[in-house]
Request: fold
Amino acid sequence: MITLNHYLALSALLFAIGAAGVFLRRNLITLLLSIEIMLNAVNLTFVAAGRQYAAVDGQIIVFFVMTVAAAEAAVGLALIIALFRHRESLNPDAFTSLKW
Amino acid sequence: MDPVLIAQVALIVVIFHALLLSAAGMVWAERKVAARLQQRFGPVYTGPYGLLQPFADVFKLFFKEELKPSAADAALFYLAPVISAAAAFAAFCVIPVGPPTDFFGLLPHPIPLAVADVNVAVLVIFAITSMGIYGIVLAGWSSNSKYSLLGGLRSSAQMISYELSYGLALAAVLVMANTFSLQEIVKQQAGYWHLFGVPIAPRWFVFPQILGFTVYMIAGIAETNRAPFDFPEAEQELVAGYHTEYSSMSFALFFLAEYVNMVTVSAVATNLFLGGWHLQPLPEWLGFFWFAIKASAILFFYLWLRWTMPRFRYDQLMAFGWKVLLPLAVLNVLATAAGVIYFGS
Amino acid sequence: MGLETVLFYVFGALAIVTSLMVVGQRNPVHSVLLLIASFGALAGLYVLLDAPFTAVTQIIVYAGAIMVLFLFVVMLLNVGREDAAEYDRSHPFNRPLERRAGTALVIALVVELAWAVWHVSVRQEGALRDVAPGSVASVAEIGRVLYRDYAFAFEATSVLILVAMVGAIILARPRPQSH
Reply:
């Protein structure tokens, strides 16, 4: 018997995995991929909650989250390309010239 | 055992094998049509009229050596043709090939003649066609060779560009039909169009949507990488494009994927524009044959086009897709929406 | 053990395992492909939740478009395996205690999320399947609500995409050789 809590637990776990990726990986592309994992975990929560309360608003918000994620991925990747042209590296530790 | 369950499993098996046979039939038809258009005979020795030629081809491919370049990424190299073929077959799952039937009373209630009758069928087709791009991109990348990489990137860029016009041509039909389900769209094409009370044409969507049909066919041909849009696999330029390094059954899988994609595009065009299984005023229960005839006509058009027109150069191809086809598709959707609001149907 | 339960655990396990592998893989191309598999599993979960439109949109937008963009960028940059190179070659578990901040933060997050899910005030005891779906699965209903109640957000998103498109092209444009 699958309850709402099962879906919440699953999406919390996915969110934690995504956050772990953001904290622990030293590669800009993998960083963006981990952010996408987090966004997907949140989408799952919205759809499950929408189903629980028989409201279509959960799916509407997911629609907007997907659109914003697409825009964010496009701009993020463009930034990575520009950064890579500058330093030939995808390691975030390579871009610390503003650190004091 | 539940007879409906047996019928559905049998339907899955029959459709799968029908797709395989249709790919084989397309191989034969391609060679025969090409030959006749070039005023020669084509295969005549292998079986009557050369009908066993595709089986001879598969036999030959089966016994070739399976090669892999040593610098290629093994997992991706073998995964790519699998993705292509799987996407090609999966896209056909939601297409109804005939009217809902109870097989002359054998079943308690009629079942739809599709592997999966979902109510978002058009979107599913679009989604799985997008997944087919990965097969080509990964094939080009994992072969680790210049020709493959160039061919793969060009081919996938072409497919992404024409996917937009493809989707918009579909969207115009959706605006007219007001539903995503292919079953419902075909049902709405029964009957006739009336002009001043006189029935002048079958109620197929191709008549009001002639621009949409043209856009769909052109985008479909570009999506399946067929001439005149087959620059990425042109023999004269790129050896064989993204499948240069493939041999034996991996190559056969790519071939299979290409032909099954053509069959899928034809089947979707038949259902959306040409009335599916209706052929007024002929009987409905033969619907599967009318469907097959119409899809075959479109496939013949595919072959005819390949051996008649020269191919586009790559920049011409991309310019055409973005600067001509996309604005036409958008215009078509706007005009359709205006028409639907004005005529109220 | 109904079909729905089995499918939930299968798709859930697939999503978790592939996400873990995305975070753990060295080769970025493999990471992208594993993430596509994860999105596929999530689409399956959406179908279980009576949201077929969201499932198909997930495949079209996320797996079919955004990931293709990622794949192209990864192939363009051609970095191969991740290099810790001249910055910090040590494995996160072998670093001295004062530099294990990332791991500590992850553990703190997991503990907090577990506590939150356990104590959430909307804790439901009934099966999700028993709640009446209403019109959640209807695409027409989604369209109605989207274009009536959320019309402003919809228009704002279209402006956002336009801005993102222009911005991405300008940022990634090759610099003119003006020396």
